Amino acid sequence: MAAVDYQQLLQDVMAEALGGGARGRSADYIPALAAADPGAFGMAIATVDGAVHGVGEWERAFSIQSVSKLFTLALALAEGGDGLWRGVGREPSGNPFNSLVQLETEHGIPRNPFINAGALVVTDRLLELTGDAVGAVREFLRTESGNPEVGTDDAVAASEARHGHRNAALAHFIASYGNLRNPVDSVLAHYYAHCAISASCRDLALAGLFLARHGVRVDGSRLLSRSEAKRINAVMLTCGTYDAAGEFAYRVGLPGKSGVGGGVLAILPGRGSVCVWSPGLDAAGNSVLGVAALDALTTATGWSVF
Ligand code: DON
C-alpha cells in the first residue's frame, strides 16, 4: 500500500475548505475571543506512531474552550472510574451547549459531559479526585504534546468569568440538586481556566492520540481501557458538537469535539488524530472552516468510522 503523503493531503484539504466561501463569526459572548479573525486557519494530523504534519497556522496557540471537555472527561474516568456516570448522562441533548432547559425535569443530571452543564459536573469530579482540575488537564496536554508551553490564558478566563452568568446559573442549579461536591465558585474557576487553556493544532492533535491508540498514552502507559476509549469516542460522536452532532456525523463521520475558540479535534481510531482551527463559528458554535476541512478530509480519504 502506498504511503500517505500527509502534507499534500493537508494542502488539498485546506485549499478546498478555504475555497468554500462561508466563514462564520467569531464567538463574541466571551469578549476576549471576539477579536479573532474568522478566516484564520490551521490544521494538523498526528499519526499513531507519533509523527505530526500540519498546514496553515498549525503551530499557533488558540483558546481550546470546549475541546478541554474531552480531556476532563478522560481524566475523570481514568481517576475515578464509571461512578462518574451517576452524575452525568451520555445522551445527545439536541439543545445548545449552554442550555438550561433539561436540567429541571432531569433532576440536575446533565444529559452528557460535553454540554456546559455536564462539563461542570465532570470538572467538579476531577477537582475532587485530583485537587486541581485545570492543573491535571494542563499537565496532560503538556506531556502528550511534548510542549511545556501549553498554559492557561488568564485574560480569557477572567473575561469569561465576568460574562459567565449562564455558567454560574447552571452550576448553582446543579448544586441545588446536590450534584456538585465542591463549592460552586471553585468549580467555575477550574472550568473557566481549563476552557482558557491555549494550545495549537499540533499540540491538540498529539494530545488526542491516546484515543486513536485505544487508551494508550505517548509514553506507552495506559490511561484508559480499550473499552473506555471506545466509549469516549462514542460520546464524542453523538454529543461532541452539541445540537449539530447529527450533521457532524453525517458530513465528517468521525468522533469530534469542538470549542468556541474555533478548534475541532477529531479521532481516526487506530490511525491518528486531527485538529483544525478557524475561529469563524456556525450557529451551533462549531468552526465553519474546521468542519468543512474535516468533511473534505474524510471525503478524500474515506477515513471515517463508517
Ligand atoms: O462555557 C463556555 O461557554 C465556554 N467556556 C465553552 C463553550 C464552548 O466552547 C462550546 N463550544 N462550542
From TrEMBL:
Keywords (A to Z) from UniProt: Acetylation, Hydrolase
Keyword Hydrolase appears in the UniProt entry: yes
GO BP, sorted A to Z: glutamate biosynthetic process; L-glutamine catabolic process
GO molecular function: glutaminase activity
Binding site for substrate: S66, N116, E160, N167, Y191, Y242, V260
Gene3D superfamilies listed in its UniProt record: DD-peptidase/beta-lactamase superfamily
Keyword set includes Acetylation: yes
Superkingdom of origin: Bacteria
EC number in record: 3.5.1.2
Catalytic class of the enzyme: hydrolase
Family to which this protein belongs: Belongs to the glutaminase family.
Subunit-level organization: Homotetramer.
Protein name per UniProt: Glutaminase
